[in-house]
Amino acid sequence: MTNLLRHYLFWPVAALVALLVANTVARPSFLAITIRDGHLFGAPIDILRTTAPLLLVALGMTLVIATRGIDLSVGAVVAVSGAVALSHLASSPNPESPVTVLTAVGLALALCLVLGVWNGFLVSALGIQPIIATLILMTAGRGVAMLITGGMITTVNSAPFKVLGSGFWLGLPVAAVLAFGVFAVVAFVVRRTALGMLLEATGINPAASRLSGVRSKTLTWTVYAASGLFAGLAGLLISADTMAADANNAGLFIELDAILAVVIGGTALSGGKFNLSGTLVGALVIATLERTVTVLGISPLVTPLFMALVVIAVTLLQSPRMRERLTAATRRPVATTPPEPQPAARPDSTEVKTR
Amino acid sequence: MARTTLTRTVLAAVAATSLFTLGACASDAGNEPAGGGETTAADDGVITLGFSQVGAESGWRAANTKSIQDTLTAENGFDLKFSDAQQKQENQIQAIRTYITQGVDVIAFSPVVETGWDAVLQEAKAAGIPVILTDRAVDSDDETLYESFIGSDFVKEGTTAGEWVVENFDGDGLKVVELQGTTGSAPAIDRKEGFEAAIDGSDVEIIDSQTGNFTRAEGKTVMEGFLNKHDDIDLVFAHNDDMGLGAIEAIEAAGMEPGKDIQIVTIDAVKDGMQALADGKINYIVECNPLLGPDLAKIAQAVVAGEEVEKRIVVKDEAFDQAAAKEALPTREY
Predict the structure, then answer these.
(1) By the CB < 8 Å criterion, does A249 face chain B?
(2) Residue B104 falls within a domain, yes or no?
């Protein structure tokens, strides 16, 4: 039981279950999934679809955080990606043609990859603090998106592009299939090869890992590029969702949500050990939380407060020190027991700081 | 080691500064005057007007911006300094302060929210620069802080929408969900108030109300939530077209037909909204005229000439049902 309680995924999953229960109490048919127009329909499906962009951004963020970095520019990259894709579609004579849509998607992803490489260059080649390096693009990126859209909200009709946001594949939302697919591939590559361990080594001690033959700089560069690329894909999903590129609001604060998802998932911001499965649960918690606000009918005035309280609760319950206190409080007072030492280097555990 | 750290810090600072400036240029394009001289209307007949726009959150706002930029041109005797606040009050206050320092002839702006303007407007007053409000009002006890407020009557827009609903559906026990605008903004507060006043006494009932922040994306997510929560929604009242368009997406995804299974009533009448109305996906739109440029030009000229102007100028709004939209669509300017 204590082992289960201590598992890094316990509290995030508990939070997710609690939210789902709260929703089901408020609305008994909340978890019901029906088939409408040949695809699955219901709140859980909506949650999967709205999780998709956040999951992609949080996936990149987890890798960046694992190398002891942070990427604040993802929200701006989301805006740039949508702006590029929709501007290309809007300016083309035939936005309905699949070739045009593929070009638009390709252009947007290529530019976002370049932006990610730029972040990687600042951090890894110039050695600028990640928070400063990505802050540059966070601010400038929205300006770039504004330039591309000319300060207007670009809207366009294109059935093939719309599929990315609202389409269904085998009854499941295309956006969710894409995001979860990318997630699965990355998780496989990172955990089934040495890549994950090398990333962790870079995060724990870049100098030592370099001296032991890990190509830390290249790895750092790669994770920022990946983060840019994933944010670009997220931007496509977001803009396809409403078929509008909004340079000001698309992906606004998604960097904070993504960091939150990573933290809820039990990855420490100090780098090193990281949990992709935790990030997945974290992203689901945030998307469910947003839906809960509407289902419970919480007034818009107290929504931020409500969300903050849930997040504080989850992070507090997760903190090892807080948990120690809790267990100490519930246990019968025994004569001066020294605080239980943390188990040593359990794989996939964040409680251990190997430094 | 210390040296490398120093070099890095300097490098970071340089990179950050240069890009921040770049970002600022990009988002405030056209903000700075070409010459940058301190000219007043008296010496050259050109009125320098500083305008702080809310942002580019909706199609309505884009049409509003275009109207102002197209009217306040050099040919018409204006030097327009335009800035976009990206929906943040602090950006607007900063823009207004900049205009005061630059010594423009007139300041005009659309306040993002209703409150919190007294201090900066006092500064403008102390500097002797007249202020004109467009589109949205401020909530202040001191009416001398601005010369005139040009804009639609938001309460009346809400009432018109509510009256149409009551006229068509009273007696059906209609269940309405409301997509509110940005919390605390004048149109959100007033449209809600007007709509509620109009349906008062009928059996039309608002069963849920949430903010969609005037954007399509949030309109869609909130509407999805409403659809998860209620089975019996008959009508959506959205405070602007964009949220209504987002709601259409959510309703379609739920396998229902917007405009038939769930009726939609919105406010604004921008092009995309009118198109949806003509296509039968929206049922009724109350117009909120964004073409404030000509009125603003007229009032600014009068204020600079020292004439008395009316404190409140109400822009004429129309309302459209589906038939009227089909007729009006080809000739609409926005």
Answers:
(1) yes
(2) yes
> Does residue B201 form part of some domain?
yes
Does residue B204 share a domain with residue B234?
Answer: yes
Interface touch A133/B24, C-beta < 8 Å: no
Q: What total number of domains does chain B contain?
A: 2
* Inter-chain touch A241–B217, beta carbons under 8 Å: yes
Closest CA–CA distance from residue B44 to any residue of chain A (Å): 31
Q: Is A117 within 8 Å of chain B by CB? A: no
> What residue numbers bound the domain in which B239 lies?
154-288
Contacts of B198 (CB under 8 A, 6+ apart): B158, B159, B160, B161, B162, B163, B165, B166
The per-residue pLDDT for B12 is 53
Residues in A 57-116 with any Cβ partner in B closer than 8 A: none
Q: Which CATH class is domain A50-323?
A: mainly alpha
Per-residue model confidence (pLDDT) at position A332: 57
Any domain includes B333: no
* Cross-chain CB nearest to B56 (options A30, A143, A151): A151
Helix, strand, coil in percent for chain B, rounding step 5: 45, 20, 35
Q: Which residues of B touch A250 (CB under 8 A)?
A: 217
- What interface predicted TM-score (ipTM) does this complex get? 0.74
- Whether residues B168 and B279 share a domain: the answer is yes
Of the pLDDT bands very low, low, confident and very high (cuts 50, 70, 90), residue A266 is confident
Q: Are residues B308 and B284 in the same domain?
A: no
Q: Is A341 on the interface with B (CB under 8 A)?
A: no
Task: Report the CATH number at residue B180.
Answer: 3.40.50.2300
CB contact under 8 A, B19 and A136: yes
A-chain residues near B255 (CB < 8 A) = 36-37, 41
Is B22 within the bounds of a domain? no
Q: Can you spell out the DSSP letters for A33-100?
A: -EEETTEEESHHHHHHHHHHHHHHHHHHHHHHHHTT---TTHHHHHHHHHHHHHHHHHHSS-TTSHHH
